[in-house]
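User: Predict structure, ligand guanine.
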Amino acid sequence: MAVIISGKEVSARVRSEVKAECEQLKSKGICPGLAVIIVGDDPASKVYVNNKKKACADVGFVSEEYALPAETTQEELLALVEKLNHRPEINGILCQLPLPKHLDEKAVINAISPMKDVDAFHPSNVGRIMIGDYHFLPCTPAGVMEMVHTAGIEVSGKNCVVIGRSNIVGKPMAMLLLHENGTVTICHSKTKNLKEICSNADILVAAVGKPKFVKGDMVKEGAVVLDVGINRDENGKLCGDVDFEEVEPKASYITPVPGGVGPMTIAMLMKNTLMAAKIQNNIE
Ligand code: GUN
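Assistant: Predicted complex:
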């Protein structure tokens, strides 16, 4: 029987801390502001963006949504980013990914001022994470680490296996575990002996994007299992990258889906936006 790490509880705590700090900033005449850009009408992106807006209102931030039509040009999008870069009351800028195919995601990420890049996707922020000298951490890996810390799990010296090597989750996740002295292995679609490598993990992070990919026989007895996936199973029900029924009995700690890593991502976005407002106003 595993201890279930509730992302609902941990994210509520993080958000209430952000809310309290936001009130303090407001007493100094500063109100954190987040601009969220969404291009086109991808239904999942719309849900995420709505949740981000709601979270802003909940912690006391101002948010502005820029819902642009799918046929927006690269020039129009870059012009908007540039305008937002120069507005002092906007502390964070987020462009929801994926963008429609005709737009160049890399160029858009590069155009966001690194000081307002609350997703931590800009190459300069990615580089800062690599050397351990950062302001912002990408929201999902930061959320996973927040859950690990809250549960009192020690990373130092542990075998950590991350399945998935995306720029948004897998790679930065591996780096954060390394910063805490984990011995880190990154697995991906070309990895040989995946089952054997995963079975050696004390801490296993699943960020593959495949429903119930991690089975019971891939997990060591007593492992910590952190599930970043959000998928639909064959019955259309939300599920993670981990087969919860099979894995939970073997794990010491596990994050559920839904109610695990998902809510943490938005809580960490709020934390990054607060940090951006503080930095831009020379506080701390
Ligand atoms: N698409 C999926 N996850 C994310 C995220 O964390 N930030 C942005 N901007 N887009 C995403």
